Amino acid sequence: MAKHVHLIGICGTAMASLAGMLQARGWRVTGSDTAAYPPMSDQLAAMGITVMEPYSERNLDERPDLVVVGNAISRGNPELERVLDERIEMTSMAALIHDEFLDGRERLIVCGTHGKTTTTSMLAWIYESAAQGDEVWKPSFLIGGVAENFGTSFHVQEGTRTFILEGDEYDTAFFDKGPKFLHYFPDVAILTHVEFDHADIYKDLDAVKIAFKRMVNLIPRRGRLVAFDGSENVSECSAKAFCKVERYGFGEGSEWRMTVLTQHGSTTAWTLLRKSDGASLALTLPMAGEHNALNATAAAAVALGQGIPPERVAAALASFRSVKRRLEVKAEVGGVTIIDDFAHHPTAIRETLRALRAAYKGRRLIAVLEPRSNTLRRNVFEQELVDSLALADEVVLAAVFKSEAIPERERMEPQHVVDALNQRGVHAVLAVDADAIVAELAPRARAGDVVAILSNGGFGGIYTKLPAEITKHLA
User: Fold this and answer.
1) Which of 75, 128, 169, 114 is nearest to 347 (CA)?
2) CA 142 to each of CA 11, 321, 392, 473: distance values in angstroms, whole numbers, following the listed order
3) Comparing C-alpha atoms, which of 129, 151, 147 is closest to residue 322?
4) How far is CA 105 from CA 25, 101, 129, 141, 443, in A?
5) Do the Cβ atoms of 231 and 244 come closer than 8 Å?
């Protein structure tokens, strides 16, 4: 009889992926959540896994063999309380991935404050593409988003030697406050960026750096760390590695150096130079943004260092199709282009808007932001947020998501951001929710506009409401 596992918080990106991985292994999977939204709700539905809503003790009436507790679940959740009362066996997502899927495999882990999901997707696609000529490269993977080349966020292949995994620095579970990536024990790791983030669980930048230093300390001497060369924080976190450290970026002394970078619309091209052997490789990526070229370079550096032929690396990146909710075109209505991007931090917002400027030159760029992440909801980065949003021509800011959950002295004040942007000459307004934003934007949207919707949540259905309302005004 199949083992029954129940996931509390199943609609989280990684939790939904784990659900699919376990189902592929022959487990019977059930799960519960609240406020399910695409793309993970769609992925679960496609797998035939029903999401029980809302959380309820009754969801455990058919007692599971194992319960996976999502990291967003805390004491007081009715299902968690029943698990504890009845001593149903429980674990975390990261621990179960380690125990069930990583044993005996080469582990390639992508870590960093920004760029993890895209870089992991790129690396998985390079391996998958290389496997078309040599099955030895066939990967298993888990990504924190839906990779468009695969149409899924995970794939488990029995007997494959390589597992590619996004390594999240967020905490693991209510009973394990360490980062998820400490469970994965990488053979090779990428470190993209280290910045202060997740202000709800990290006190300051030093605390974030300690977490990444601990990850680096898990890499064996025979392993590799591929680390971004443009960050002092990354340099500090890499300094005491016992493994070989290879830097990547634009630095002249780096092992993997990017040169002659050009951007034409949504295509980026550059040459990658390898210091140790003098080799060069021309790379093209059908995505805008220097940050995406850096992500691709990190993935290429790992793949080339593991022995994948250069021509297969180049071909894979040239055919890469991005990740859901990363500069994703959601609609084009009357000449208005509506973009969805998973914004969680001022640096990510800055790079997104820079990429859109490069891809849509000469067009009016309107940024619509929902302060939803635990970092954006706090005032710690209020000034940096103003600096990032100032790259847009216009800004519409929503109210802070569930503001009551943030202490008032720590809470970001949207009006402060709006006022600061207007003082800089950037037209900015505050509209409390999706409906108010649609009412603000739809009547004055015009052909040529690019509307970047920046949120790491469902944002009140704005992705369908806005194009529908613009269509009405054009009729």
Assistant:
1) 114
2) 15, 17, 33, 42
3) 147
4) 16, 8, 19, 11, 55
5) no
* Residue pLDDT tens, the chain, 475 long: 789 999 999 998 889 999 999 999 999 999 999 877 677 788 898 899 989 999 999 999 999 999 999 999 999 999 999 999 999 999 999 999 999 999 999 999 999 998 999 999 999 999 999 998 788 899 999 998 888 899 888 999 888 899 999 999 999 999 999 999 999 999 999 999 999 888 888 999 999 999 999 999 999 999 999 999 999 999 999 999 999 999 999 999 999 999 999 988 889 999 999 999 999 999 999 988 898 999 999 999 999 999 999 999 999 999 998 777 777 889 899 899 999 988 778 988 998 998 899 889 999 999 999 988 888 888 888 999 999 999 999 999 999 888 888 888 888 898 999 999 999 999 999 998 999 999 999 999 999 999 999 988 778 889 899 999 998 887 6
Which helix (H) or strand (E) segment holds residue 423: the answer is: helix 414-423
Paired with 69 in beta bridges are 8
Measure Cα distances from 16 to 21, 45, 46, 54 in Å.
9, 10, 11, 16
459 CB neighbour count, 10 Å cutoff: 23
Output the six-digit token pair for 242. 């016992």
What is the rounded CA–CA span in Å between residue 244 and residue 255?
11
Domain annotation for the chain: domains and CATH numbers:
4-91 (3.40.50.720), 102-318 (3.40.1190.10), 328-474 (3.90.190.20)
Alpha helices in 189-309 (DSSP H): 205-216, 232-238, 290-305
Beta strands in 325-393 (DSSP E): 328-333, 336-341, 365-369
Q: Which helix (H) or strand (E) holds 119?
A: helix 116-130
Q: How many CB atoms lie within 10 A of CB 408?
A: 9
| Contact between 190 and 110 (Cβ < 8 Å) | yes
Residue 380: name the closest of 421, 414, 412 by CA: 412
Q: Distance (Å, rounded) from C-alpha 283 to C-alpha 272?
A: 7
